[in-house]
Here is the input.
Amino acid sequence: MRWSTRLGAGDVLVLALDTSTAQVSVAFGDRGVVLGSVQLAGGRRHAEQLAPAIDYLRRELDIDVGRLATIAVGTGPGLFTGLRVGVTTAKVMAQALRIPVVGIPSLDLVAYPLRHAGRPIVAVLDARRREVFAARYQPVPGGVQRVSDYAVHTPAELVADLAVLPQGLLLAGDGVERFPAEFAALEHAEFAGSSFSAPSVAALVELATARAEREEFESPSDLRPLYLRQSDAQIAWDTRANDREPGIPASSE
Here is the structure.
């Protein structure tokens, strides 16, 4: 199947989705500028909220989805169910419209809006199970550069790693808000505030547009979420399998 970004002289229309956290975020953008966006704090209701949010915003902005050049999606790391909903929705829509997708890690979308801060940034997202997803970034001309791996930590482990770094860290993301006592121990770090708690859908529009213009996109079948650990269901299944007596087959249910 051939994929086209439909990049015309007049516009570069992008649909952007991020469902990696408890928040559902949707935006339409043109040439890197957000035309309109919706953010819903719905807990774990991603599957119920995402499609209606897309349709509501499309109707409000009077957008013909047939004009879309690409679909952008936050690929995580994040909550397993939310990520699956967002990535699957992006893939299905792109396949139906015969357009490519641009996947951008959600931690990058936390750090990018702070690119003008002039100091190192640590993006931290709540991973549940008393853990956080995190990555470190350094501002560079025009954006941020990741200087660590995407990783999952306990808050104490992350704080210990950050404690030996130079002064002036800027922390962002809902993982910091989830564990305030632990991160308060970092006397040389500052929290960016609740405005930077979730991945920015405006950043997703801007970054995805730039990548699409450079033809750095993927076919929907190649898009993969960034999972840093197994889902709760898989862990429970593995635990049951390990507890089973030798020679007893697993149930087919």
Remarks:
- The longest strand covers residues 33-41.
